[in-house]
Write the structure tokens for this entry.
Amino acid sequence: MQPDGVIRWRLHLKSPPEQVYAMLASDAGRARFWAESAIERDGAIDFIFPNGLTWRGAVLAAHPPYHFSVRYFANSRVTFELSPDGNGGVDLSLSDAGVPEADRLETTAGWVSVLLSLKAACDFAVDLRSHDPARTWDDGYCDN
């Protein structure tokens, strides 16, 4: 986490920007790595997570294939920036601004789980999640 309170992570993927963007910005893509369901309706995404938690977050910006932003938990602003790496892959930069200080440690770790699941799904067609409501983040599992 940065001194300004914004959570930032970077991730390199061997997949092209268009493929990575589709994972972030489509219902089917998000369901492959982020949430059990994440359907966009009327400019907002209805997330459903394995532990039953739900969140409706407005899509704030969608500029394929390089920029996607959504309102997330506690009304933070999550932004994904994709930059071609010059070799057919992409460097992804995530920022999550506006996370309450009490939630920053868990949110910082949560993004590691989400981003590594994205890499596994996008680059290797593997789903790292258990999809088991009895084994969730709330229960100490990082593979929910």
